[in-house]
Amino acid sequence: MAIRVRVDNRNKRFALNLDFFRRLAGEVLKAVRVRGLSELEIVFLSDKAIRPLNKKYMGKDRPTDVLSFNMDIGEFGRGKRFGEIFISSDTALKNSGIFDTSFEDELVLYVIHGILHLSGHEDYTPRDRARMSKKQEILLERICRKIDLSRALTIR
């Protein structure tokens, strides 16, 4: 069963190619073989918009790069799982300067990171972070062979 992917850009500071991110998410979902997920929504936000979510759900009163949520849809959804990934485009831009990467690479990495969380990977311990980082790099390399990452932005 194909997973329905929706992408929304609520941070109007950046013009993103939503079709690119929809395709990217589909490729990552196939690569990690996510099972049981019926729908995925990816939402790009500002730091201002992601901060209250990070405070409410993670107890951290500051912006973050990525938040991922797995939800079981009750009886009306017939037990299907729905995933949400919230990404701060503002943090991606800041981190691209810190880590000497491109803005596009940061956004792509955050999509991969969020999907890995939805597939059960965690990064709370140093060991888990190392495993997840390795998995992200493998996926990024695989995805780069299929998708031109420079297509992430609509306007240059």
Give a verbal description of the structure.
The chain has helices at residues 18-32, 47-58, 89-98, 103-118, 126-144, and strands at residues 4-9, 37-45, 66-72, 81-88. With 156 residues, the protein is of the alpha/beta class. It has a single domain (4-150), classed as Metalloproteases ("zincins"), catalytic domain (Collagenase (Catalytic Domain)), CATH 3.40.390. Strands 1-2-4-3 form a 4-stranded mixed sheet. The N and C termini lie far apart (36 Å).
Sum this structure up briefly.
The chain is 46% helix and 19% strand. The protein has five helices and four strands, in the order E-H-E-H-E-E-H-H-H.
Main traits of this protein?
156 residues, alpha/beta, Collagenase (Catalytic Domain), four-stranded mixed sheet, 5 helices, 46% helix, 19% strand
Work out the radius of gyration. Answer: 15 Å
Q: Which whole number gives the mean pLDDT?
A: 86
Shape descriptor? globular
Question: How many β strands by DSSP?
Answer: 4
Number of helices: 5
CATH architecture: 3-Layer(aba) Sandwich
Which fold name corresponds to the CATH topology?
A: Collagenase (Catalytic Domain)
The profile of the biggest β sheet is: 4 strands, mixed
Give the H and E element order. EHEHEEHHH
Strand order of the largest sheet: 1-2-4-3
Helix content: 40-55%
How would you classify the helix and strand content by structural class?
alpha/beta
Instruction: Tell me the strand percentage band.
Output: 15-25%
Low-pLDDT stretches are: none
CATH class: Alpha Beta
- How many domains make up the 3D coordinates? 1
Q: Assign the CATH superfamily.
A: Metalloproteases ("zincins"), catalytic domain
| CA(first)-CA(last) distance | 36 Å
